């Protein structure tokens, strides 16, 4: 009897210690269909980890090592979750009815350029770079009918090679590409989703080829913001070396004149533009630097490389002002990034999609894609849902409390 009592006491102590690291969920989330965890620095067990512990910038929190068995178990439980909250605001934003489903399991290949057409229910996205395609070159894209979960490969007319980013604006799809080999340089193209007719609308800066576009966003005035990256050369999609350092271009949609507005010795990747709720003429631009990911002469992830997220005020003509450091990822680096209707930032960050407050820069929580080899790369919004594409396929997050899709 005494042995049983001692065992029960130890078990109760273990559960109490574990619950101190993983805070109790709000009542309405305890019966959620999704699996939630709450990690709060208000808990002393989170603020001060006993024993030895370690985690690199290349590892998600659940991959961290700790000598204390209770902490190790807490990390393990994080890997069983769908949503991890770091701030109470994440609960209010996502809500208890949200679910995440892995709707398409694809090769562990980078998938990019998601565009969700709310009118048709179609999700356009691309497979990017080697080892897929013809030596890494893709002249086709995926189209997922989200209403019946059927997937097909499509080709535009003429074909769009190596699509890397996509945004829908005024019922048209705008796609940026890497170009391919020595045949075609990076381009900004317009695609009619009804006919799949492709039209190139920009392919040079005063005769200089672009490095290879990675992503884009469009502001509420219809102007383009393009990230020109060294990733295409780094993955041997193009044969010429970089004519300049990675650059952000602002393109006036009326004149189509490109203007460099930011340059980095790291790398450009995703970009997001949001509009002030108080003053619709004011835009904020968010830029993550991904110098963390190096290509040549050796392909590697450098934990000392740039991976910070900065915010800028966009002045007339695309001039970026009032630069401010906003966030450094908890893990990995920010790939595709999008701003929701109310300005929250959703960024692919390896293990999942981080949701970031645009004012204080805090990571409010993470929408996880299951761990293992799965990697969240980029997102596209519906009204109360989002689609995540990345290594491992496509995930659908449904029943989100916050309205996500922008009104432009």
From TrEMBL:
Residues 164-386 form the SMP-30/Gluconolactonase/LRE-like region domain. Keywords: Signal. Coiled coil: none annotated. It holds the Pfam family SGL. Residues 1-17 form the signal peptide. SUPFAM superfamilies: Calcium-dependent phosphotriesterase (SSF63829). It comes from the Eukaryota. PANTHER family: PUTATIVE (AFU_ORTHOLOGUE AFUA_1G08990)-RELATED, SMP-30_GLUCONOLACTONASE_LRE-LIKE REGION DOMAIN-CONTAINING PROTEIN-RELATED. This is Calcium-dependent phosphotriesterase.
């Amino acid at each position: 009897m005494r042995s049983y009592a001692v065992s029960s006491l130890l078990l109760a102590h273990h559960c109490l210690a574990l619950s101190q690291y993983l805070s109790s969920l709000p009542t309405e989330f305890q019966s959620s269909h999704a699996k939630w965890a709450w990690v709060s620095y208000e808990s002393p067990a989170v603020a001060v980890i006993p024993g030895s512990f370690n985690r690199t910038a290349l590892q998600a929190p659940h991959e961290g090592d700790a000598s204390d068995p209770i902490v190790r178990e807490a990390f393990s439980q994080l890997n069983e979750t769908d949503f991890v909250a770091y701030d109470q605001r994440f609960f209010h934003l996502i809500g208890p009815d949200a679910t995440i489903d892995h709707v398409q399991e694809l090769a562990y290949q980078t998938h990019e350029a998601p565009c969700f057409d709310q009118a048709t229910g179609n999700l356009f996205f691309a497979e990017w770079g080697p080892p897929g395609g013809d030596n890494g070159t893709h002249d086709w894209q995926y189209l997922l009918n989200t209403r019946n979960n059927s997937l097909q490969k499509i080709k535009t007319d003429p074909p769009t090679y190596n699509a890397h980013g996509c945004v829908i604006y005024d019922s048209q799809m705008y796609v940026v590409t890497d170009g391919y080999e020595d045949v075609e340089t990076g381009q900004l193209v317009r695609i009619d989703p009804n006919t799949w007719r492709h039209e190139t609308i920009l392919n040079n800066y005063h005769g200089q080829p672009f490095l290879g576009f990675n992503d884009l966003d469009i502001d509420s005035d219809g102007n383009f913001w393009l990230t020109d990256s060294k990733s295409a050369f780094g993955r041997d999609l193009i044969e010429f070396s970089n004519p300049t350092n990675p650059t952000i271009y602002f393109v006036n949609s009326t004149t189509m004149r490109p203007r460099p507005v930011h340059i980095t010795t790291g790398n450009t990747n995703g970009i997001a533009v949001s509009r002030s709720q108080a003053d619709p003429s004011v835009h904020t631009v968010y830029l993550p630097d991904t110098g963390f990911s190096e290509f040549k002469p050796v392909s590697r992830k450098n934990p000392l490389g740039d991976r910070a997220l900065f915010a800028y005020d966009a002045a007339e003509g695309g001039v970026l002002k009032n630069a401010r450091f906003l966030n450094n990822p908890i893990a990995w680096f920010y790939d595709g990034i999008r701003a929701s209707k109310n300005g929250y930032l959703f960024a692919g960050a390896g293990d999942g999609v981080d949701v970031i407050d645009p004012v204080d820069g805090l990571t409010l929580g993470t929408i996880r894609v299951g761990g293992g080899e799965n990697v969240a790369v980029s997102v596209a919004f519906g009204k109360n849902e989002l689609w995540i594409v990345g290594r491992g396929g496509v995930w659908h997050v449904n029943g989100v409390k916050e309205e996500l899709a922008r009104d432009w």
